Amino acid sequence: MGIALAFCLTIYLLFAYNNEFDDYYANTSAIYRIHEFKQDASGKIQRFELAPIAMGPRIPEEVSGVKDQTRFINWGGNLKYKDILFRESIGYADANFFELFDIKLKTGSQSSLKNKNNIFLTEETAKKFFGDEPALDKTVTLHYPGGKSVDLNVAGIFDRIPMNSSFIFDALTHIDHFLYGNDIDQDDWTAWQQASIYLQLTENADPREVDSQLDQYVTLQNQAREEWKISDFELIEFNDASIVNQGEINGSNANFRLRDEVLFVFTSLAILILLIACFNLANTSMALMATRVREIGVRKVMGGGTLQIFYQFLLEVSITSFLSILVGMAIFTWMAEWFYSIWNAPIHFTYFSTFNFILAFIILFLIATIISGLYPAMYSRRFNPTDIFRHQVKLKGTSIMSRILNGLQFSISITLLVAGIVFTQNAGFLKMLDVGYESKDLIILYFNDKNEYDLLIDKVYNQSDIQAFTGTNDHLGASYEDTFLVLDSGNLEIRSYRVGDEYLNMMAVELVSGRLFYKDNTSDLEEAVIVNEEYIKKFGIEEPIGAMVNLKERKRFIVGVVKNIVRDIFANSTGTVPEVFIPVKEEEYQILLVKANENRKQEVFNYLEESWKSVIPNRPFSANFQEDIAYGYAMQDNNNMKQIFFALAVLGGILSLTGIFALSSLNVTRRFKEIGIRKTLGASSYRILVQLNTGFFWTLIFAGLAGAVLGYLVTDQVLSIIYAYHISVGIITLLIGSLSVLIVALITTSFTILAAANTNPAYILRVE
């Protein structure tokens, strides 16, 4: 029970994460977020918590009902102090950011943000750069792509910012540094980088009227950026929990609540494991009641009322539950640390409201007490003292209710075991999933310009462990661009990849028809395009090779058709959409692909890291294995779920086996004389084993069927929530899960029964 309650408290932290999201910020009732809407290449309308950077300062002047605004951008940046260099998450904000969002400082002053040459660091970041030295007034250098840099003075250290906050960063500085580093003018509406904009409305302002006035900026945005046409801006309350949720927002600089599906999955698991523990305690209480019948009779004869007996049994279970939750608290800290470490989420219960945590503690205690103790306590009221002392009450150790509770325990255990097996199988499925390109032994490096590309190329030439290399602007699984196809009915947005001429060869993309790009071919650079199968299907092209593709920037002609690429394995992906591949010159490359010789990719990765440090000292090494890009997060999530399900299956199995062992032992004790008589009359140990195991056998059979059905429903639902591509749960998996638990349970009961059956009947009858 203690372990089950510890797991429930661990999952409570997920609920607290969402329920207390942004409680850190005070007085935000008048603050609203701006969301924009845009149709993607698949035709789906997407929601973004983004808006043009230039839009923010204009709103208080041009929109009535708006008192103030502030912008926030979260962007990676390279911070350097002396020879210490790290890539950090840098927050950029307007000078009034702290006036709308009161983020507490451990040292320094919030007003210092008005000085554009200041920067604020989190405690973790300050310790990373300065160790135990005081960080205030130290100078760090922020390096930008393209060679720009700026020296900034450390003006403050943040107190701990909760993880369930909209604003998560390693450092914060003035937004003008972002504009400077990315060559963006303050009034430039053409910049592809966008900000999250927050409005503070005046007292009594109507949000609907403010919302309607934002329509004037839709036209400005669409005229400036035809490749990013939006349909609407919408005001959302800052603390609106119904929309501001992972999965609802397709892009933002802010952090969000967890998806509702995540809470559903883990809350369901917590309920299942709690039910197993509660059923086990209820079952044991019911079984042990057989030894307390005379006690109940004596208490009633001495004047004890049925309600007193009821409350006595309920109180006894409540004491057990209370002791269990104390044990659970001791286990909880370790369990929560393990659970959240595998998700790389350092969540701790001290981050959340103590009052809410105590309330959750009390609610769990009450639930455990009621589920575990209500039926045994009610059952105790049925006994009549006269019947008890006349020996007319014959309580069996295994009543119908106890068998039902035990069957429910085992069905839940089977469900969890099936889920663990399914996620193990799904890991193999994901490894073998054909994503449409080669990922083995590929290493991806991200650079800024042609100069860095040339420096890196010099290092990979003639390196014996490197089989091949090439450059590209966009990359499968990492980046793409939206472009427009010009049709008679208007412009249609499609997905494009701007790639090097050898890129598709290097990625081993499967060619369906035609050819790939020729190397160093001017004609291909000017006129050629390769499309995917979905493009041909969507536009009904019967003879694709040589067909014209009228892109907004220029007309091109199809030279090849490639197989559809799986870009995202997760369920919330946009799926397969029309895609085009356009060749670009070396000057546009931003990514270097390196193919290592077989089984040498780690050595090549280490070599590239050392080479990088020698030629690009002002930027941290930026590289990935392609397998991590293609499968990384999906495989990690799958393996995490596998660990959790197996851990819960083991826990549920131990609880269930404990319960059936107690029932079996009590059943044998109650029928000890019967066993002795049967042995005396010539019954074999085998016959006694079969006789006494029959009831348990049918209980376990029904539990196996229920567990298999529930296991199928649970795992199929969870897989569908997480993945777009996953295995189908097979009958063999369900049988393995059910039979495994059935066999172990029967061995447990058989061990107890055989111990009694092999006892000398003379001893049994003499004792009895």
Q: What does it look like?
A:
- The structure is a single chain.
- This protein is an alpha+beta fold and 768 residues long.
- The protein folds into three domains: 32-252, no CATH class; 260-430 and 633-767, no CATH class; 442-632, no CATH class.
- A hairpin with a 5-residue loop joins strand 1 (31-39) and strand 2.
Number of helices: 23
Number of domains: 3
Silhouette? globular
Give the fraction of residues assigned to helices. 40-55%
Rg computed from alpha carbons, rounded to a whole number of angstroms: 33 Å
Q: How is the biggest beta sheet arranged?
A: 7 strands, mixed
**Spans with pLDDT under 50 lasting ≥5 residues?**
none
Strand content: 15-25%
- Strand tally: 24
Indicate the mean pLDDT: 84
Helix/sheet category = alpha+beta
Distance between the termini: 35 Å
Name the descriptors.
768 residues, alpha+beta, 3 domains, seven-stranded mixed beta sheet, six-stranded mixed barrel, 23 helices, 48% helix, globular
SSE layout and pairings?
Elements lengths: L1 H18 L11 E9 L5 E5 L1 E2 L2 H8 L3 E16 L2 E10 L3 H4 L4 E4 L9 E4 L1 H8 L8 E5 L5 E10 L12 E4 H7 L12 E8 L5 H7 L2 H9 L7 E6 L13 E2 L7 H29 L4 H9 L4 H36 L12 H27 L4 H5 L10 H33 L9 E5 L3 H11 L5 E7 L8 E7 L2 E10 L3 H4 L4 E4 L7 H6 E5 H7 L8 E3 L4 E8 L16 E5 L7 E6 L4 H15 L7 E3 H45 L1 H9 L4 H38 L8 H27 L3 H7 L1
Parallel strand pairs: 2-13, 5-10, 7-9, 17-22, 19-21
Antiparallel strand pairs: 1-2, 1-11, 1-12, 3-11, 4-5, 4-8, 4-11, 6-9, 7-10, 8-9, 14-23, 14-24, 15-23, 16-17, 18-21, 19-22, 20-21
Helix pairs in contact: 1-8, 1-10, 1-11, 8-11, 8-13, 8-19, 10-11, 13-19, 13-21, 13-22, 14-18, 19-22, 20-23, 21-22
